[in-house]
Amino acid sequence: MKHNLITSIILSSTIFSCSTISAQTTKQVQLSSIKLIEAGRYHANIFDQSAAEIVTFDKLTQQTFVVNAQSGKIDVLNSSNIDAPTLANSLDLKADIKQYLNEEAGAANSVDVYNGLLAVAIEAKNKTDKGWVAFYDTSDLRFVSAHYVGALPDMLTFTPNGKQLVVALEGEPSVGNYAVDPEGEIAILDVHWQNKQLSTKVTHLNFTDFNEGGSRHNELPKNILLNGYQASIAEDVEPEYIAINQDSSKAYVALQENNAIAVVDLVTKKIERIMSLGFKDHLIKGNEIDGDDKDKQARLKNEALLGMYQPDTIATVQINHIDYLLTANEGDDRSDWVTELSQNECEQGHFYYHLEDKHCADDLKLKNAFSSDIYSPKSISATLDLSNFKQGGSQQSTVKTIKFSHSLTAKHGDLDGDGKIDRLLTFGGRSFSIWDMSSSTMIFDSGSDFERITAKKYGKDFNQTHNKLKAEDRSAKKGPEPEALTTGVIEGRTYAFIGLERMGGIMVYDISEPSDAQFVQYLNSRDMSVNPKDNKQKNADGVKTYQVDAGDLGPEGFKFVSAKDSPSGTPILIVGNEVSGTTRFYRINTQVK
Fold first, then answer.
1. Fewer CB atoms near the end CB (10 Å): N or C, the chain?
2. Which backbone phi and psi does 546 adopt, to 5 degrees?
3. Are strands 73-78 and 86-92 parallel, antiparallel or unpaired?
4. Could you report the per-residue pLDDT of 455-510, keeping only the tens digit for each?
5. How far apart are CA 489 and CA 512, in angstroms?
6. d(CA 414, CA 419)
């Protein structure tokens, strides 16, 4: 069946500074294509504790390494038979850090492998302290070494040539009050791994030159989002994810909360530039969303909203000698970090004080902004003028349940300078995008595809969250919340695989022509007749165990393995599902329609 889904967007220069692109139509692939087929699955039997988060595959030993995040362990799966993967071993990271460095480790966050060398990102027990990269030999799982890299190493990846390991040091502030706010950094480790011996050299890149008064402050893009409480630019920036281009010369680093990408020259080891991603205008045809979580129906419509792309996972491909960057436009806010601020401190930071809950926050429901019991700033200067959204205003039809950023709407929502808010800034784009990095322009966005496709499949039961069964639970927030993303080349064509963290499932697109990406498949093993919330039992360690099986929930990490490296002889996709604690293997078959 052919899908005619309008996916791309036309953005005015007042809203999106990078480019204006023509509306296009996404067509389902009709000729040679691919199909994902469920193969085996490993179940950690741990529910909603990040037991299967990030995954990587070692072609030398045919093992899959799975981040069992909160436990501080890496599960090692024998993947020689992808139809029946089994747990072969576990790496006890916390014990190794304690034994070799006499330090207390926190959660594991990321893992990657190259030529038999496994690298793991580990945060400190106090996440604002410096964390580590630990190395293991995949042939015998021997601990090799560990190195301090900085606060909250959130993601790491080897360059395609294996000569460097690049680490995103997110540097999140302390929860509640920003008492400690480490600077975000990028670490580049030169790696020499030969004859079971490892040597490394670390280079740290920070953003202090971009601080106010710094030598590169004037290079900051106009629409970069900055709303950290009393934070410098270097503290505000929080590197989240890294993608390396094909020739290992550049790293693209997602600055999620800032809605930006840092481009790093890996040869000179310098930050080349910062690129703002702009905003997605949900008043444009093709960018409809369902922002109403109370109407018990799948109803997508245009709204007076600007989506902040704020990607989590990113990936890069090279087609016709051009680097293209793919972004999974999840969205994120800073509310967790400001809850304990006083009302005066809260409003000084351009956040708002929730009067009923008596805490500071940034994500605000439009209907609550009209309730003086919830929203009543002490000063007029701290109050958003939302008269355009009230009865009789030009945007009075805007969905009243939608959540938006108070601080960023205050900074960017008044488009004509009259003091009144014209657009509400919402979290995420509910889409994936493709950017031509030679010109820093968006050339494709999947628009409203994800919600349209899931609404067609699930009807009013769409926009579920991942750990309970409640229809439209995410409509007013970030919708399907695309987070996981990877790419793969199969028989000369390039494909993108995007995971929907909340609703669940995998979207597949053929991106061989990046400006005309084509929808291929959506599959989701989630059992909608089972409520995951029924998982209430705990084991002797207080860990929630899996009492019901509602399928794979919360896809968080993807790994594509080519046919030549795969144990099955076919391309495969490995998916870590953090809520269900399952690692799923998919066989990728080619097909002719």
1. N
2. -90, 105
3. antiparallel
4. 999 999 999 999 999 999 999 999 999 999 999 999 999 999 999 999 999 999 99
5. 9
6. 6
Question: Residue 108: beta bridge partners?
Answer: 122
Contact 463, 471 (CB under 8 A): yes
Hey, is 519 helix, strand or coil? Answer: strand
Do the beta carbons of residue 446 and residue 509 sit within 8 Å?
A: yes
CA quadruple 218, 219, 224, 227: dihedral positive or negative? Answer: negative
Q: Taking a C-beta distance cutoff of 8 angstroms, is the pair 465, 474 a contact?
A: yes
For 211-232, give the DSSP string. STTSTTGGGS-TT-----TT--
Half-sphere exposure in the Cβ direction for 309 (13 Å, CA): 30
pLDDT band per the 50, 70, 90 thresholds, residue 593 = low
Helices (H), 349-423: 366-369, 406-412
Q: What is the mean pLDDT of the chain?
A: 93
Q: How far apart are CA 323 and CA 316, in angstroms?
A: 7
431: Cβ contacts below 8 Å, ≥ 6 apart: 7, 280, 329, 445, 446, 447, 448, 449, 450, 482
Return d(Cα 386, Cα 369) in angstroms, integer: 8
Using CA atoms, how far residue 377 sits from 7, 291, 373, 386, in Å, is 39, 25, 11, 13
pLDDT reading at 2 higher than 60:
no
* Rounded Cα distance, 48 and 466, in Å: 9
Chain centre to alpha carbon of residue 234 = 21
Residues in the chain: 593
Domains of the chain plus CATH, in order, are 95-276 (2.140.10.20), 343-425 (no CATH)
Residue burial 40-55, b: 16+ Cβ < 10 Å; e: rest: bbbbbebbbbbbbbbb
The one-character DSSP state at 210 is: G
**Strands across the sheet containing 518-523:** 482-490, 493-500, 506-510, 518-523
| pLDDT, average across residues 366-389 | 97
State how far the Cα of 65 lies from the Cα of 51, in Å rounded to an integer: 12
Give the pLDDT confidence score for residue 9 in this predicted structure. 30
Closest CA to 593 of 17, 30, 21, 28: 30
Q: How far is CA 547 from CA 53, 530, 579, in A?
A: 20, 11, 13
Cβ-proximal residues to 13 (8 Å cutoff; 6+ apart), any chain? 20
Burial degree of 88 (CB within 10 A; 0-12, 13-18, 19+) = middle
Instruction: Give me the residues paired with residue 250 across strands.
Output: 265
The CA–CA distances, whole Å, from 567 to 58, 82, 146, 563, 580 equal 10, 7, 30, 8, 25
What count of Cα atoms within 13 Å lies in the side-chain half-sphere of residue 42?
Answer: 28
Listed in sequence order, the residues at least 6 apart from 194 whose beta carbon sits closer than 8 Å to its beta carbon are none
Between CA 100 and CA 124 the distance in angstroms is 15
Centre a 10 Å sphere on the Cβ of residue 59 and count the other Cβ atoms it contains: 16
